[in-house]
Amino acid sequence: MSAKIRVVIAKPGLDGHDRGARVIARALRDAGMEVIYTGLRQTPEQIVTAALQEDADVIGLSILSGAHMHICPAVMTLLQDKGLRDVLVVVGGIIPDVDIPRLKEIGVQGIFLPGTPMQEIVDFIRKHARTRVESV
Amino acid sequence: MNTMAKSATPEQALAERTARGSCTTVSGRPIAPLYTPADVADLDYGRDLGDPGEFPYSRGIHATGYRGKLWTMRQFAGFGTPEETNARYTQLLAAGGTGLSVAFDLPTLMGRDPDHELSLGEVGKCGVNVASLADMEALFDGIDLGAITTSMTINSPAAMIFAMYLVVAEKQGASWKTLSGTIQNDILKEFIAQKEYIYPPRPSMRLVTDVFAFCTEHVPRWNTISVSGYHIREAGATAAQELAFTLRDGAEYVQYGIDAGLDVDAFVPRISFFFNSHSDFFEEIAKYRAARRIWARVMRDRFRAQTPRSWQLRFHAQTAGVSLTAQQPYNNVVRTALQALAAVLGGAQSLHTNSLDEALALPTAEAATLALRTQQIIAHETGVAGVVDPLGGSWFVERLTRELEEEALAYFERIDAMGGMVEAIERGYPQKEIAESAYRFQQAVERGDRVTVGVNAFVEREEEPIGTLYIDHTVAEKQCGRLARVRADRSDAAVRASLERLQEGARGDANLMPLLIDAVRAYATIGEMCDALRQVWGEYEEMAVI
What we know:
- Chain A is built from five helices and five strands, in the order βαβαβαβαβα.
- By secondary structure, chain A is of the alpha/beta class.
- Chain A has a five-stranded parallel sheet with strand order 2-1-3-4-5, with helices on both faces.
- Chain A has a single domain, classed as Rossmann fold.
- Chain B is of the alpha/beta class.
- Chain B contains 22 helices and nine strands.
- A nine-stranded parallel sheet of chain B has the order 5-4-3-2-1-9-8-7-6.
- In chain B, strand 8, helix 14 and strand 9 (350-352) form a beta-alpha-beta unit.
- Chain B is globular, with a radius of gyration of 23 Å.
- At the A-B interface, helix 1 and helix 3 of A face helix 4 and helix 18 of B.
């Protein structure tokens, strides 16, 4: 039997608009995932440390402030450094079209813009998160 | 009950929903297909409505409505460097805007200098960056602060930014006695909704009441606070929750002001409000009418205010950012126009209309101009400004007004029972209520119970992208450069001394405004002033719950 997918939802940067992060956290939990919400104003170091400690399969970043081109590369580099290459990273928020190719290039697999249905995000994570098998 | 629940799939629900009218408001309030005099049988005109300009002001605070004075068309703007924002203001004023409204970036809102590590990637992105008096001077260069009214959306560091504004005015030769404008200065809704707080609630409230006391004496025409429901609504609250939490926040500030020794009628007339104007047309109009009625009664009966100006709720409105869609962005012009019309029919004193591209980025100059034109068309072409409270007496609107009032007063009772709004916030009560509403709304969207044109219905597969404003990283370099020059040119000894006096004042009970003004004159930065108080008061961290 496969175990629950473990997701760290984080809100990096100085922004406090957490409606999206909280709604998604609840939707993923209601979809049967194990969700850890880090709270506000997390640095890339704090987010990656949380992912390591929580043995996360997925990191979900909520960024609306325009700081994504600074935050995402920092998170991806730290994940590489810590050997967490198989952690799925997804980003939700206000991301200009021109930045999307660059984010994909550095390994952000899912980018969800305003108006994305919650179900689409749930399905994406189920499809792309690493599979883990319950050790009995 | 909810007939939508019978639909087998979200697609079926959506098909049914797009075929006929809605039976709930956007806040989930059930509405009847028809209202009659029986729905408002116990409404008493003199007691519950009154003529416009008469207690309890349900119909408006001015007898002549917009015939006496149109609302102020105040477009919120700010991005990049102070120079870039200054150019946008000049353009908005030239296009017929009648007031300024400053949007600050996140480092400024959080009391951090642009060269602080937490400011990385955030400088000038969501608003203009202001780190010291030098930036404030550039922001208002060539704009006569004695002649214009300015609203500044700043909360945790409101006192610091206001001190900068006062010093710029002083340097221009404008008298503080005649300065007019607003600082948002509403920290409670930061804890509840927007989450841009620095200090714990109690010292934060002390900064607010220090501003009240200082302005009462020195800047008597300034609106010392804009008690804001806007952000509460954007975070997912219903209309009734927006109304309830905002007005209860207002009552909390009044109580803290009284507890700080102020005379209620000396500071309450300078309290203003700020509401969202969301998509549910009649519910929004009813909300503004209920807000005036509740505030008038609370001020007269609970706080024993004597002067009618203390009873009169004045408010700014902004159309709902959360309703804007990234898909088919031109539809946002229509949404914004209808929301703006609701605010006008509800008697707003000032109004901001969002731009069509704001689900994607900060607005371009063209989009911002179109948003202003929307207000001008409502004001000058539709005729709606000619009659005060034209929907007064509508059985539906009067019934909705009363329902919203009752729901808000029930929240008042619950929050009073907790000991007040500060205590309710410390328990996470309004935060949880809003998170619940936000989640319920999103579930309704997913089930197909809510139609959003262009997003879950009437979707277009191929969309032509529109041009948007892009803030590049050179803003941060420019701002850090100016900051370095400011630090090199000023007297560090004078800055240090002013910050030490500020800390000493914070440890005691001195009014901090004069101390902040001294620090600003010495070119202390926003980060330095906020850090000085962080060292005394500590920082607030909320419990992260989902």
